[in-house]
């Protein structure tokens, strides 16, 4: 899949397996792309992929359903099982074939209830939670380094010297601990 938005992308869009043009302003790009997205939102590319996967899944379900339905009912309608006492009137066979078509169409219409935006929102939430977890882990590691170096004064307030030591070591500062003011100290 190739995603492009300009005339210079048209040759690649035409040669790719699936070409996706975003907000195509030129007729060349629209003609070369297999998919044209109206908005300038890259999440729509993911939506198009999710919808195509769900559509292909539904096609396979419909194919299996129609194949099994026909493989069972066509021999019965033909009268192959008539010697065994299993027969179907022609009128019922016609209704059965119509029901096969109706079931496949109904199954396809079920795609209208599919909302890829819910999946995309869940993915965005998972990414945000992952970023927050990484940040939380980074802070916990920094505080655990600081926690081993801190002491408390007579009022029970932690000294900030070790924390400043860690932050200054990242910036390359050579400030000594004696120059760092401590919480709870006067002046």
What is the C-alpha radius of gyration, as a whole number of Å? Answer: 33 Å
Report, as a whole number of angstroms, the end-to-end distance.
65 Å
Mean pLDDT score: 75
Main beta-sheet annotation: 3 strands, parallel
Low-pLDDT sequence parts: 153-157, 159-171, 173-187
Query: What is the succession of H and E elements?
Result: EHEHEHHHH
Indicate how many domains the architecture comprises: 3
Computed structural class = mainly alpha
Instruction: Strand order, main sheet: write it out.
Output: 1-2-3
**Fraction of residues in β-strands:** 5-15%
Number of helices: 6
Estimate the helix proportion, in percent: 55-70%
What best-fitting shape do the alpha-carbon axes yield?
Answer: flat
Please give the number of β-strands: 3
Textual characterization of the structure:
With 187 residues, the protein is mainly alpha-helical. It folds into three domains: 2-37, no CATH class; 43-114; 117-171, no CATH class. The chain is 60% helix and 5% strand. It contains six helices and three strands. Strands 1-2-3 form a three-stranded parallel β-sheet. Helix 5 (116-149) packs across helix 6 (161-171). It starts with a strand and ends in a 16-residue tail after the last helix. The model is unreliable at 153-157, 159-171 and 173-187 (pLDDT under 50).
Task: Please outline the helices and strands.
Blueprint: E1 2-4, H1 10-15, E2 19-22, H2 27-32, E3 35-37, H3 43-78, H4 90-109, H5 116-149, H6 161-171
Parallel strand pairs: 1-2, 2-3
Helix pairs in contact: 3-4, 5-6
């Amino acid at each position: 899949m190739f995603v492009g938005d300009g005339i210079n992308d048209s040759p690649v869009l035409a040669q790719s397996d699936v070409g996706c043009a975003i907000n195509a302003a030129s007729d060349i790009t629209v003609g070369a792309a297999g998919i044209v997205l109206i908005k300038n939102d890259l999440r729509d590319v993911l939506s198009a992929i999710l919808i195509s996967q769900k559509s292909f899944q539904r096609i396979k379900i419909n194919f299996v359903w129609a194949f099994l339905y026909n493989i069972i009912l066509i021999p019965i309608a033909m009268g192959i099982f008539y010697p065994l006492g299993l027969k179907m009137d022609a009128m019922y066979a016609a209704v059965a074939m119509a029901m096969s078509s109706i079931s496949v169409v109904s199954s396809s219409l079920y795609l209208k209830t599919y909302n890829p935006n819910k999946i995309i929102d869940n993915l965005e939430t998972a990414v945000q939670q992952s970023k927050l977890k990484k940040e939380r882990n980074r802070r916990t590691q920094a505080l655990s380094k600081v926690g081993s170096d801190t002491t408390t004064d007579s009022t029970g307030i932690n000294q900030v010297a070790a924390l400043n030591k860690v932050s200054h070591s990242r910036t390359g500062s050579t400030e000594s601990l004696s120059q760092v003011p401590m919480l709870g100290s006067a002046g």
